[in-house]
Structure formats: C-alpha cells, structure tokens
C-alpha cells in the first residue's frame, strides 16, 4: 500500500508541479502589481486593491466556468474517445469568447459599486480607471483557460508553466516602465499595472496557440485543422457542468473581495493591509489548487476508464497531499509574517497590520487546502452542483455574516463587539466559512466515491 501511495503521489506531483509554477506566475502578476504600487504610494496601492477586488471576482468566476473543459476532455481521453476532443476544444473556444466578452461588459459596469463605498473621489476615480483598462484582457483569459483545460487533460502541463512565466516577466517589465515612468514614459501608477496585466494575458493566449501548432504532442487531437461555427448543444453541455463551478468560485472569491470592499470605510491602511494579506494567501493557495487541478485530470481519466476504485484512491491521496502542505505553509507564514509584510510595502503602519492579518491566513491554511483539493476531486466525477451549494452556504451563510458581525459591529445587532474589529473580524469570518466548506466537502467526497464503487460493482454483476 505504501508503494502504491508513493507512486500515485509522484504521478499527481508530476502533473501538478508545472501547473503550480504556471499558477504562481499568473498570480505573480497580481503580486507584482501590489508590491510595485505599494512601493510607489499608498494611494496607488489602494486603487489597485479596490480595482483588483472587482477584477478578481469576474476573472475567477470565468476560470471556474472554463474548468468544465478539463473534466470533459479528461473523460474523453480516459474512455479512448480522442476523435471527439478537437470538436470539444473548438466549442470551448467559442464558449470562452462569449464568457470573456460578457465578463468584460460586467467588469466595466461593476465600477458603479464604488459610488456606494464612501471612498475619497480621487481613489474612486483611479480604481475605476484600473478596472476599465484591465478589462481588455478578459476575452483572452477565458479563451486561454479553454486551451489550458485541453492541454492539462492531455497531461501536458509544462507549456502552461513556461507561458505563464513569460507572461509574468512581461508584466513586471511593463509595470516598471509605466508605474514609475522610466525612459521618459508617463508615470501611470495603478493604470500602468492594469495595462501590463491586460496585454500580458493576450500574449499568453497567442503563445499557447503557437505552442499547440508546433508541438507534435497535440497533432492527434489538434483542434484547429478546421473551423466550425458555435454548436449550442455542446456548449450547453459544458455550461451545465461549468456554471456551477463558476458559481462555486464566485462564492469564495466574492466573499474575499466583498471583505476588501467593506473594509474600505476604515481607511487606506486597512484596505492596503487586507489586500496584501489576501494577495500572499492567494500565492500560497496555488499549491493545493495545482494538486486539485491534477486531481481533476487523474480522477476523470480513471472514471473514463471505468475504474471507480482507483478514482477514490487517487482522490484521497491528493487531498492528503494538500493537507500536508497546509501544515507546512501555516508554520512558515506564522514564523515569517513580518518579513512578508515588509517585502510588500515600506509603510510601517501597513506592515504592522499586515503581519497581524497573516496570522489569520496561517490559521485557515488547513481548511482552505482541504476544500480546494476535495472539490477538485469531486469535479473529476463530473459533479458540480452540490459543491456549489456547499460553498454558497459556507461563505454566505457563515463567512460574510460572521465577518460583518465582528468587523462592522452594527448597532442594530444585540450580540456584537463593543467596537468594530475591522479587518480582523472579517478574517475570523473567512476562517469559519472555509472550515465549514472543508468538512462538508470531505463528507460528500466520501459518499460519492463509495457510491460510484458500489454502482460499478453492481453493473459488473449484472453484466456477468
């Protein structure tokens, strides 16, 4: 059994580590934006923080919808139906274009929310401009995620890594040029970050298309030897699978982003500290998420082959890997939280509050790693609706209500702190919501994996 666990853990990691590097590089764009504007001015950092709150909600929701491509292609590959893959990928690109354009429109309209947050006029104007500029990358992002799901389902994850690293390098260079106004260019501050990220995403899409065209690995299933118009039944099938994933991602990221928006009333220091802590937490989160993406592929392929027992085994190995990493990451965040804060900003007040919030980030590592790896394993079973409901309940039934109670301490509530806990109160709520999600998803994975084994056994008896 130990050898089997080690073999499966190695197989998962072989898939996950290039995804991890790619995910870290992608999130690194946001890290670079926050860190580079943080050393420019607290005002520009606040604008990036507020704009990123909206951008992240729409971006991650679109990413969730497009994750259906991974589950669908993995099942087709496992079942040996490779002839269907090109059609699925072409239709996923049409779906991505539609999702991306809708996201672009939604992003630009969502800046109206800044009118209700009691922001300083200059901060509101800069945050809105940031969103308007960065929205140009949304269509490219959704189509890139279609190709991302395709290539990872073929067990080809290194292109994702290399392209994302190139995108990060481009982002940092353009940030440096436009934030600080190098070589006679204008100092654009937050707007320079938005321009760098939007253009970087289009570059990543072009690079992925070029890689697929020239790599022999893709030739058997290469989707662009021919073109075809949108085929609504295929797109509807993927949307049926992907929309609940998108809502699941929306529930989590909107809860985190809503915290950033609600904290805005407490001032620039609270906003900036909260964004830095969230930004670093997102960076660490990429490890269990990368394991989860590998899990979706491995579980989907096993179920496509009809091996429910192996799918269950892979699921629990992957969840265990995520939990082990979370213990290590929680320890490291606790020990080095002051250094992490100093790396992001030179403002002493922001550094102190950030270090305090990173303690909460350390606490929720276990539940966060558990919920993401478990939900990804469940997606490998092509089940998305129940995880969606669990996440909605966890974040909107626990995380945000508890956060608002402690963070805002509204006068009309009889049970509340004497003074608002501000960011700390909201982070306690987030810890609560993630814990609820982790526990419920573990129980559901146990139930469906056992049920699929029984169903497979009964089908075998009937066939015999």
UniProtKB/TrEMBL annotation:
Keyword set, alphabetical order: Antiport, Cell membrane, Ion transport, Membrane, Transmembrane, Transmembrane helix, Transport
CDD domains: MATE_NorM_like (cd13131)
Membrane-spanning segments: 12-32, 52-73, 94-118, 130-148, 160-183, 189-211, 241-264, 276-295, 316-337, 390-409, 421-445
Coiled coil: none
One of the GO BP terms on file: monoatomic ion transport
Molecular function, one GO term: antiporter activity
InterPro entries: MATE_fam, MATE_MdtK, MdtK-like
Gene Ontology CC terms: plasma membrane
Membrane topology value: Multi-pass membrane protein
Cell compartment(s), UniProt: Cell inner membrane
Family matches, as NCBIfam families: matE
Annotated protein name in UniProt: Multidrug-efflux transporter
Provenance organism: Undibacterium rugosum
Lineage per the UniProt record: Bacteria, Pseudomonadati, Pseudomonadota, Betaproteobacteria, Burkholderiales
